[in-house]
Specification:
By secondary structure, the chain is α+β, with helices and mostly antiparallel strands. The chain folds into two domains: 46 residues; 160 residues, Glucose Permease (Domain IIA) (Distorted Sandwich). An eight-stranded antiparallel beta sheet has the order 9-5-6-7-11-3-2-13. Helix 1 runs antiparallel to helix 2. It is elongated and about 70 Å long.
Length: 229
């Protein structure tokens, strides 16, 4: 049985109660409208259970890979200037999460969370480009010390941005600043439809294409290409 996130319990219990009550009423008053209402409530119950599912994933742990932080579809890949964490031009991979995707987000690399920044905003449809800068969002930066072939130390960095969508009204992050996470570890979720973006510096090569389906904790979206820099 697929585990269900505890954050979904209030929604699931509430919808189940209404669905049960409506079904009982339909037995007493067997009108078509009441029966349809009961059916709709049970469909909503199934939707809630499906939305808050949290399946285990087999992460291909590798310091030279960036793992997708979200389930969904790649809707855009472009160069942008990121002003908060990197403060320079980077590659941005945008992933659209529909209400049918698993919404638990995972760490793209193993390392320390060294940047957390929340911004209030609108709730535009998550697939729109304006959502990237205008919607409610939480940026999370990850860093990991590394060593190149000459024994010199450096820091690998990646940032993801969790963006609320038209239906999404709450971003949840379970991790704290300076906390260490493993690659593929659960770090948060966005309720009811959203967008997640991955920001990669020049050390990383984009490993996916627009239109490709990805899975959180499993799909490789970036590869380390400049190991001697």
């Amino acid at each position: 049985m697929v585990p269900i996130r505890k954050e979904g319990s209030p929604y699931i219990i509430a919808v189940a109660f209404v669905a049960t009550l409506t079904s009982l009423i339909s037995l007493i008053y067997p009108f078509t409208a009441v029966r349809i209402g009961a059916l709709i409530c049970w469909v909503a119950f199934i939707f809630c259970v499906n939305f808050f599912r949290d399946p285990d994933r087999e992460t291909p742990v590798d310091v030279t890979n960036i793992i997708s932080p979200a389930d969904g579809t790649i809707i855009d890949i472009r160069k942008v200037t990121e002003e908060g964490y990197f403060k320079r031009e980077v590659n941005r991979i945008s992933i659209f999460m529909s209400v049918f995707n698993v919404h638990v987000n995972r760490a793209p690399i193993e390392g320390k969370i060294d940047y957390l920044h929340y911004s209030k905003g609108d709730f535009l449809a998550a697939y729109r480009e304006e959502a990237s800068s205008g919607n409610e969002q939480m940026s999370v930066g990850f860093s990991k010390p590394s060593e190149n072939g000459r024994g010199e130390h450096r820091k690998l960095t990646v940032m993801i941005k969790l963006i609320a969508g038209y239906l999404a009204r709450r971003i949840i992050v379970w991790k704290s600043l300076d906390e260490h996470v493993q690659q593929g570890e659960r770090i948060g979720m966005i309720k009811f439809g959203s967008r997640v973006e991955v920001y990669l510096t020049e050390e990383w090569e984009v490993a996916v294409k627009k239109g490709e389906k990805v899975k959180a904790g499993e799909t490789i979206v970036g590869k380390w290409v400049k190991r001697d820099a």
